């Protein structure tokens, strides 16, 4: 794959360098913060080869690439300067919830490699100990132990850096504040005071006896506070001495506030969260893991799982044990993999088989994006299977009280993280939970099968054939420099697709329509319906390609690549959207029979317009033949048109 | 490669009917004809893509043609746009 070109294409489609405030990547996605999300061409991006999907949630514009995302990211960085410190503030006003999620995601995404590395090392060590391959009293073990511990112990440093980027203040100043929290002298003062049951004070103000190693919230609060102190210090500092008064003031104000107020506050918040979780564990232990098990796919899609990750890190840091985030996500991810692999076994389409196999294996190992965007969301039913499997496994792990001792991408590779010092029960139950997740999701997914769009009911269409033509269709629109795409004819010889009536009414031949553009087939072949009701329903499974601003017409693309235009009334563009209500928007996936939009028949008629509604295959030239299969009265869901591919 | 830029004067921009006529015009030629509006591109013969550009009055459209008959194509499209859009 040409990563250079892909990176250039993606950059252009997210609105160019100037629209990108910052970009990071995780295991499979490029995560953009854009100044203006609407400047990005989501549709075109989705169709770009090499892009698996696009998600705009949680304040981030995420382009899903797959496991080779790092290559694209590297090329992307060559193309421009997307450094953190973008001067412009977002033009769009994002809601408070989105802003908080955006902030949490922005703080935790960059540090994930560090804690994953450390977590995995801990897991490997747990394995070595379990199989008695290493002596826990040896120096080698002690070294490894603090290698694995360093990222957690000094977590405030890591967070200080990424939080400073997020809150737009100096990262070195922020890390100095982390240094204040973790300084050995402060630690020993705290320890001494504790030992003597004394107290600490700074200029007469009490300093809480709290240790900040492995803490999460205190440093976030401190850096957030610093982001307000710094500009203030800048403002009050006279220019000639600013170079030292600004950092001096920032440090001398932030450090005490961090130790006296924010640190203890953060510490209390962290304990509250831990207490709340302990309470839940004691009363309804199955609830949280089950909920997490069911909803993780949806949370990952929306970026909400970033709200959970800090809780998991906090649990491990405070209690050494996380029963909330890890087990549920473990179940969910493995279930996602199971669902995908069931698709791989069932499908006859080699392209899908290949994708589902690799995505399934990746998901079982803890990275679910390829499975989620490539399989689950595309075919929907595997997603249901994954949620059921994840829920059942979460319930099991919840009632048995399984927890993880280290963090890491939840999946088979993270299982060693369930080996603790309390004997083999925990890891055994974790393995059983993983097996439950896999088998339930696999079975349900196998039973449900994958989406078989009903418009391809014709006998000549082999199962899953639509997927091949879908790939062809994906290459067609948007990017024009690509060669003239000759439609969907290859690999789909002679296949017939059906289009179902989108409205109730009376079907009439297209050439009876008074507008010659329709009557002469300039827009394509098709049929017209005199509507008896002001409602339009989806004629096939697919996506919304177009919604005109004036809402009098809508363009749809079937999952097999058939493009149709439904144009309600003649000359109704002049109504400027009056009397029409669209229920869907561009890019939305639609299911056959779904209500798409409504119009007021009476009002349009009274305004002097004809209501006849042409239903046109706008890419007629891609097909061998389009025949009408209805005449006279039609109801929604009746067969309306047949589209036959080239032999 | 040939190109020209045209500012749309039609009140309602390129909606379904003009897009269809434009596509019909474009399909007469073997050249690849591309519309470029506000950074979005579409092949003129691809109706759904052209409609997806959402071209409005006042938008500046750059049309390029590339191929054996690019000269004739660009002339035909230019006169079509001047007459209809």
General description of the model:
The complex is a heterodimer of chains A (647) and B (85). By secondary structure, chain A is of the alpha+beta class. Chain A has four domains: 83 residues, Glucose permease domain IIB (Gyrase A, domain 2), CATH 3.30.1360.60; 130 residues, no CATH class; 164 residues; 154 residues, Glucose Permease (Domain IIA). Chain A has an eight-stranded antiparallel β-sheet with strand order 15-11-12-13-17-9-8-19, with no helix packed on it. Chain A has a four-stranded antiparallel β-sheet with strand order 1-2-4-3. Chain A has a three-stranded antiparallel β-sheet with strand order 7-20-18, with no helix packed on it. In chain A, a hairpin with a 5-residue loop joins strand 11 and strand 12. In chain A, helix 12 runs antiparallel to helix 17, helix 14 runs antiparallel to helix 15 and helix 15 packs across helix 16. Chain B is α+β, with helices and mostly antiparallel strands. Chain B has a single domain, classed as HPr-like (Histidine-containing Protein, Chain: A, 2-Layer Sandwich), CATH 3.30.1340.10. Helices cover 39% and strands 27% of the residues of chain B. Chain B has a four-stranded antiparallel β-sheet with strand order 1-4-2-3. In chain B, helix 1 runs antiparallel to helix 3. Chain B is globular, with a radius of gyration of 11 Å. The model of chain B has no long low-confidence stretch (mean pLDDT 84).
């Amino acid at each position: 794959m040409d990563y250079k070109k892909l990176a250039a294409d993606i950059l252009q489609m997210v609105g160019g360098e100037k629209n990108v405030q910052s970009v990071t990547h995780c295991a499979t996605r490029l995560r953009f913060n854009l100044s203006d999300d609407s400047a990005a061409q989501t549709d075109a991006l989705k169709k770009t080869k090499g892009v698996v999907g696009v998600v705009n949630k949680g304040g981030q514009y995420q382009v899903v690439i797959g496991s080779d995302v790092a290559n694209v990211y590297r090329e992307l960085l060559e193309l421009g300067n997307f450094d953190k410190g973008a001067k412009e503030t977002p033009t769009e006003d994002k809601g408070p919830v989105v802003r908080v999620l955006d902030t949490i995601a922005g703080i935790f995404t960059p540090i994930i490699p560090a804690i994953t590395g450390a977590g995995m090392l801990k897991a490997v060590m747990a394995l070595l100990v379990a199989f008695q391959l290493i002596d826990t009293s040896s120096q080698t073990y002690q070294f490894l132990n603090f290698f694995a511990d360093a990222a957690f112990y000094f977590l405030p440093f890591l967070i200080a850096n990424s939080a400073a980027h997020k809150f737009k203040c100096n990262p070195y100043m922020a890390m100095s504040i982390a240094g204040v929290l973790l300084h050995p002298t402060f630690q020993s003062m705290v320890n001494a005071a504790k030992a003597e049951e004394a107290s600490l004070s700074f200029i007469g103000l009490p300093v809480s006896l709290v240790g900040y190693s492995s803490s999460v919230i205190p440093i976030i609060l401190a850096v957030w506070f610093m982001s307000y102190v710094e500009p203030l210090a800048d403002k009050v500092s006279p220019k000639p001495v600013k170079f030292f008064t600004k950092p001096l003031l920032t440090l001398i104000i932030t450090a005490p506030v961090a130790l006296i107020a924010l640190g203890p506050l953060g510490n209390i918040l962290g304990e509250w969260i831990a207490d709340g979780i302990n309470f839940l564990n004691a009363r309804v232990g199955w609830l949280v893991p089950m909920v997490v098990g069911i909803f993780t796919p949806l949370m990952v899609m929306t970026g909400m799982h970033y709200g959970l990750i800090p809780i998991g890190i906090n649990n491990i840091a405070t209690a050494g044990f996380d029963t909330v985030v890890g087990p549920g996500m473990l179940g969910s991810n493995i279930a996602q993999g199971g669902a995908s692999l069931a698709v791989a076994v069932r499908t006859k389409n080699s392209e899908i088989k290949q994708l589902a196999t690799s995505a399934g294996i990746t998901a079982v190992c803890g990275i679910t994006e390829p499975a989620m965007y490539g399989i689950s969301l595309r075919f929907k039913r595997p997603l249901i299977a994954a949620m059921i499997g994840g829920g059942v496994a979460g319930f099991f792990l919840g009632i048995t009280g399984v927890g993880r001792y280290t963090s890491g991408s939840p999946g088979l590779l993270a299982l060693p993280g369930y080996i603790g010092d309390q004997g083999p029960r925990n890891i055994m139950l974790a393995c059983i939970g993983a097996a439950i997740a896999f088998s339930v999701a696999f079975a349900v997914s196998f039973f449900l099968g994958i989406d078989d769009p009903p418009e391809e009911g014709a006998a000549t269409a082999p199962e899953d054939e639509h997927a091949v033509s879908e790939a062809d269709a994906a290459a067609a629109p948007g990017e024009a420099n690509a060669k003239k795409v000759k439609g969907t004819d290859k690999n789909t010889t002679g296949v017939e697709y059906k289009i179902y009536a989108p409205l109730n009414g009376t079907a009439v031949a297209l050439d009876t329509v008074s507008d010659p553009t329709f009557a002469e087939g300039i827009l394509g072949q098709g049929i017209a319906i005199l509507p008896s009701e002001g409602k339009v329903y989806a004629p096939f499974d697919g996506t919304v390609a177009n919604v005109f601003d004036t809402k009098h017409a809508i363009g749809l693309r079937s999952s097999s690549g058939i493009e149709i235009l439904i144009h309600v009334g003649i000359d109704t563009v002049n109504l400027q959207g009056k009397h029409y209500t669209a229920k869907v928007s561009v890019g939305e996936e639609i299911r056959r029979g779904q209500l798409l939009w409504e119009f007021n028949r009476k009002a349009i008629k009274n305004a002097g317009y004809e209501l006849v509604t042409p239903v046109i295959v706008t890419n007629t030239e891609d097909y061998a033949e389009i025949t009408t299969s209805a005449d006279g009265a039609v109801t929604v869901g009746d067969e309306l048109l047949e589209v036959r591919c080239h032999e | 490669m040939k190109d020209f830029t045209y500012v749309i004067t039609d009140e309602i921009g390129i909606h379904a009917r003009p897009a269809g006529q434009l596509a019909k015009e474009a399909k007469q030629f073997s050249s690849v004809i591309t519309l470029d509006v506000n950074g979005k591109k579409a092949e003129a013969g691809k109706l759904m893509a052209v409609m997806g550009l959402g071209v409005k009055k006042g938008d500046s459209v750059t049309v390029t043609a590339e191929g054996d008959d690019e000269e004739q194509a660009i002339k035909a499209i230019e006169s079509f746009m001047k007459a209809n859009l």
